[in-house]
Each structure stands twice: as C-alpha cells, then as structure tokens.
Amino acid sequence: MSTLQRPSRLRDRALAKACDGIAWTIVRPMRMPAYATPAMAGLQYQRVRLEREGQQLAAWYVPSPGSKAGVVLSHGHNAGRSQFFTMLRPLHEAGLSLLLFDHRSMGVSPGGLCSYGYHEQDDLLAAGNWLRDTAGLERLGFYGISMGGATALLAAARDPNVDAVVTDSAFARLDDVVDRQFLWLPPSLRGPVSRRVAMRAEELVGADLRQIAPEDAVREWRSRPLLLIHG
Questions:
Q1: Minimal CA–CA distance to 34: which of 73, 65, 71?
Q2: How far is residue 17's CA from residue 157's CA, in Å, rounded to a whole number?
Q3: pLDDT 10s digits, 118-140
C-alpha cells in the first residue's frame, strides 16, 4: 500500500464511523415524560392504553359529553403528549373529544427507535381505531405537529374514515430533510455523507426514507379537508 492510499482509507473509515454515529443519534429520540396532564387545564380525563403490535402506548382520553366528534393529537419528535397542553381547552370547548398519546419510543411508551412516521403511522391508526371502536365516536380528525403532522398525513392515506387533518410544521419528504441537514458540508462530502447516514438509519429502523413522503400521501386523499400550518 502506498503512503497516499493509507491516509485516504483511514479518512474513509473515520467518515463512515461518523456517519454511523449520526444515524444512530437521529433515530434514538429523547424521552419527554408527561409533565402536564389535562387535569391541570381543568379537564376530566382517563388514562388508557392503546394496543399496537403486542405493546401498549400510553394515552389520555379527554371526553366531550354528548359529542360524536373527536381528534387524535400526534406529537413531534423528541416530544410527548404534553406538547398539546395549551391547546386542550380550546379544542375541548369546541365540542371535541381528545385522545393524546406518546408515540413509540417517546414519552413513556415502549420502544427504542424512531422512524419519523414510517412505523409511527401505525400508532396513530391504532389511536383512531380506539376513538371509533371503544369511545364510540363517529367523526374523526388528526392533528399533528412536525413529525406528528407528517405521520398524520401518511396515516390518513391509509384510513378513509379520517374526516379531516390539521398539521403544524410537517415535512414534505424525509429524504429532503436529511439532505438539508448537511448543506453546511463541502459539496464533495455532502452527497456521500447524506447517503451513508440515510442508508444506516434505514437499516436501523427497517424503513425506506423515500416512502416517508407525506406530500405523495396527500394526493391519495386530497378531497378531504386539510389545513397546513407552516412558517
């Protein structure tokens, strides 16, 4: 091996390890335990468990007596159900029953990895089924923030019985989000680093980033009411 090849290979190995470390970090969410309950907003609620793939997601149900309409609230990455605390009273006073839950691997729900909507849409669909089947609601909407918003758009494409969706700061495509994180790198490194991080993250969570594309999912159900909040 020439003296020129050795530093190049060492650099490539170091870069690969750095990319693997970045991928591991971004799919391991922080846990944000519920710090504010609906009772602190003056609302009665009950603790429930949502069955999903043999595990139970932690949730709160805030009923609105006499109402047949409800909303599932889907929080963002590195957050939990308390993210919606300030919105509970306005939504409840509008006559809506509310279901707040911790997505897998966040809050106090079981799990260890986050797929940014790929698997989390199953969590949201389980929550919607609970409102219909257990709470007996007839009209259902999804409200999501950031990753939770992207998840809501993906899940609505799979459930034609979701009547409306509201999102705040949802991303359009996850692969674009990953690419944007490395714009600060020199052009010669930007592509290789982005691809390596994406590939490793896909291996860790068992997902295809290209399939986490809410903008494509919306086209399947755009006849339903949709409000996109962004800045």
A1: 73
A2: 37
A3: 999 999 999 999 999 999 999 99
Closest CA to 204 of 110, 126, 118, 122: 118
pTM: 0.92
What separation, in Å, do the N-terminal and C-terminal C-alpha atoms of the chain show? 53
Cβ pair 172, 215 in contact under 8 A: yes
Q: In 3D, which of 105, 124, 118 has the Cα closest to residue 167?
A: 124
Q: 51 in helix, strand or coil? A: strand
**CA–CA gap between residue 136 and residue 68 (Å, rounded):** 7
Which runs of E-coded beta strand occur in 53-203? 55-62, 69-74, 97-101, 139-145, 164-168
Residue 49 tokens, joined: 């468990």
Task: Indicate the residue type of 183.
Answer: L
Report the distance separating Cα 147 and Cα 161, nearest Å.
22
Contact 71, 116 (CB under 8 A): no
Tokens 């020199």 label which residue?
186
3-state DSSP helix/strand/coil % of the chain, to nearest 5? 45, 20, 40
pLDDT tens for each residue of 152-182: 999 999 999 999 999 999 999 999 999 999 9
Write out the two tokens for 118.
């790929």
The full DSSP string for 3-39 is TTHHHHHHHHHHHHHHHHHHHHHHTSPPP----S-GG
